[in-house]
Structure formats: C-alpha cells, structure tokens
Amino acid sequence: MIKPWTIAIDGPAGAGKSTVARLLAQRLGYLYIDSGAMYRAVALHTLRCGIPLTEPDQIAALARAARIRFQIAEAGTDGAQRIFLNDEDVTEAIRTPEVTALSSAVSAIPGVRSAMVSLQQAVGAQGGVVMEGRDIGTVVFPGAEVKVFLTASPEERAERRHRDMTARGTEATLEEVRRDQDERDLRDSTRPVSPLISASDAVTIESDGMTPEEVAEEVLAVIDRRRREK
Ligand code: DC
Questions:
Q1: What number does the ligand 1 atom closest to the CA of 120 have?
Q2: CATH 3.40.50.300: which residues of the chain?
Q3: Domain 35-126 class?
Q4: Threshold 0.90, pTM exceeds
Q5: Quick one: which atom of ligand 1 is closest to the CA of 136?
Q6: Phi, psi at residue 159, to the nearest 5°?
Q7: Hey, what CATH class is 1-30+128-230 in?
Q8: For 121, how many CA atoms within 13 A lie in the half-sphere containing its CB?
Q9: Tens of pLDDT along 8-22?
C-alpha cells in the first residue's frame, strides 16, 4: 500500500492556517494536527507551576515530563479536536491572551522545542496528516510531500485575529492585537532555534482577500499536481 502523504502548513499567526488545514484534512480524509496547541499547553503548565522565563531548564524539564495528547477527531471529519495536559482537557484554557503571549516565549526554548518536535513526529509517523505550525516543513517533517507557506499582510492578519477573538468573547482592541502580533512575529522569526522561515521547497500562498475555501482549493490543486508528477 502507498503510504499516505504528509501535508505541512507553516506561516505566521493569523494567516488562516487552522481553518485551511482543517478543511484540507476533511477533504483528504487525513488527520488534522495543530502543533501550536502543544506549545500553548506547555505555556499553560509553566504558568500554573509558576516557573519564570528566567528558568528555561526547568521549563524544558516540565515540557519533557508533561503528558500532552490530542483526542483526535476521526480522520475526514470536521477536525474538532481536544487537547489534554496530564489528562485534563485544556482545549479552551490554552486560548487566553496570557497563554498566547507566553507560548511564543516558551517555544523559543530549545529543550521545549525538541520535546514537542519528537511528539509531533510520533503523531504524524504514519503519514495521512495535515500538520500546521511554524517549522513543520523545515524541521518536523522535512520530507513532507507537500509544503505550504501560508501568509497574509500584517493588517489583514490582525483584523482576522481581532474578529476571532471578539467572536470568542475576548476583549482587545485592534491596536492591541496588532501590537501583540508584531511582537510575536518578530520573536518567532528571529529566534535562533527553528525560526519561522519558509522551506526552500514550499509553495507560498499569500491569502489576502481569499476565503479559507479558496486557499484550500489552491493547496488541493498543488497536491493533485504533485501526485501526477510522482
Ligand atoms: O499557532 P499558535 O499561535 O497557536 O502557536 C502558539 C505559539 O507557538 C506561537 O508563538 C509560535 C509557536 N509555535 C512554534 O514555535 N512552532 C510550531 N510548530 C507551532 C507554534
């Protein structure tokens, strides 16, 4: 049997990766994995344990010892997925602004990254996954059959995030969202370990003015093309 493919979707926050990756997983009958949720779970754990960022070794030890797992929705369904930290469902708790801010900082710690990368590689080892993140095509699955670098202008990304946050009942002004986004973009793209960069063999899609469905169609066209080339 031919091994099902791995689809890597990388890009900055607010580019629409989650919605697009979920749609793709649904259309392909693949599993959808949100790698950022794992860094968020480590951030939540760090916050709760009261470990300061000045103790990266302790945070890395916490990340290694934490039991982080997904309750995976069935392949090909709408991708609704729960994340568990030490058997507690933290799906909602990892989405607060406090956790969002800290997740960017903990994800810059090399020991945290190596622990999460191993977990991600284990979850996707059989193929048949659409995994989204920042370093999926460059570090986690450099051999992924299809790699997409999904981006959009900073203005459009901030507006999308602001709309999502308002819908979730989180209060923040567009200016605050933009400021946080700029800080995170800078930190995610300049950290020494696995910075957010496009893989040399990734297809870049600039999603300004496109709906998630249109982006997903474009990725499906790339997948089709690759399949014909094989
Ligand atoms: O995608 P997200 O916003 O939920 O990710 C949370 C943080 O984790 C973000 O600051 C970047 C980081 N991250 C990462 O460094 N590598 C990944 N593969 C996914 C997320």
A1: 18
A2: 1-30+128-230, 35-126
A3: alpha beta
A4: yes
A5: 18
A6: -65, -40
A7: alpha beta
A8: 13
A9: 999 998 899 999 999
